[in-house]
Amino acid sequence: MKIWTDKNYPIIISCAKQLSRWTEAEVIEMGYKPIEVTENTVVVRGDMRDVMRLNLWLRTAHRVLVPLLRTTCRNIRELYESVLSIDWENLLDADGYFSVSSIVHNYTIRDTRLPSLYTKDAIADRMREKCQRRPDSGGANFGAAVFVYWERNEVIIYLDTSGEPLSKRGYRRIPGSAPLQETLAAACIMALRWDPSTPFVSPMCGSGTPAIEAVMMAMNKAPGSLKGHFAFQSIKGYSRFIPGETSSLVSSRHRAGASPEQIWKEMVRDAKSKERTVGLPKIVATDISPDAIENALTNSIAAGVAQHIEFAACDFGDTKVPESESTPKGVVFFNPEYGIRLGDPVELEPIYERIGTFMNEKCRGYTGGLITGNPDLAAKVNLYYKNRVPFFNGPIDCRLFVYEGCELKGQNVK
Question: Domains (ranges, CATH) in the chain?
Answer without folding.
Answer: 1-166+222-274 (3.30.2130.30), 182-221+276-404 (3.40.50.150)
